[in-house]
Design a protein that fits this description.
Elements: H1 2-22, H2 31-39, H3 52-64, H4 73-82, H5 84-94, H6 109-116, H7 128-141, H8 151-165, H9 173-182
Helix pairs in contact: 2-5, 3-4, 4-5, 4-7, 7-8
Signal peptide: 1-22
Keywords: Signal
């Protein structure tokens, strides 16, 4: 009789394992879609202007080849200059384990602290200057050799974030994290 209950327990565990693995979404991106996005690396999805600096930080993001893309400084900066849809899709093209936009793990607390500084633990929002410093810092970490032609280029990437979050002149963590996951910018 013990073998019966052991078999039942084993089957129950196998059923749990198979249903758990079935819940993990894999993303398959059409190869033509990938080619299309690769051709436009460095061009913001909505601004349609090319930036060699953005192309460099986006390529640096892609070299990370991780699944938790919002835990990589270059990927967060690339989302700002390239657009979230492009960065997510480009990462999915090379790694089908990158989840759908809403299922990607949240923005890393250490990345947020890197953006806003020591006030992160008290919940301070991202300011325009924080954003500028973060983008240039991410580009420096990516060894960018062609920088934005002016700070106005970086401010052009900041404006769509402000417009989407509708939080005034600053952006709190939650809203920035939501922008990364849901804006389809």
């Amino acid at each position: 009789m013990l073998w019966f209950w052991t078999s039942v327990a084993l089957l129950a565990n196998l059923g749990t394992l198979s249903s758990a693995s079935a819940l993990i979404p894999r993303v398959t991106v059409d190869p033509q879609t990938c080619v299309g996005y690769e051709k436009y690396i460095g061009i913001h999805d909505t601004l349609h202007s090319y930036s060699p600096a953005c192309a460099s930080v986006t390529n640096s993001c892609l070299k990370e080849n991780g699944t938790s893309i919002w835990s990589h400084q270059q990927c967060v900066a690339a989302a700002a200059c390239q657009g979230t849809t492009s960065v997510i899709t480009l990462n999915q093209c090379q790694n089908p384990n990158v989840l759908t936009s809403g299922s990607i793990p949240n923005l890393s607390g250490s990345i947020y602290a890197n953006i806003v500084g020591s006030c992160a633990s008290s919940g301070c929002p991202i300011t325009q200057q924080n954003f500028i410093d973060f983008v240039y810092g991410a580009m420096s970490a990516a060894n960018v050799t062609q920088w934005p032609s002016s700070v106005d280029d970086v401010l052009a990437w900041w404006k769509p974030i402000l417009d989407w979050t509708k939080t005034g002149d600053t952006v709190p963590y939650t809203n920035f994290n939501d922008w990364l996951h849901w804006s389809r910018s």
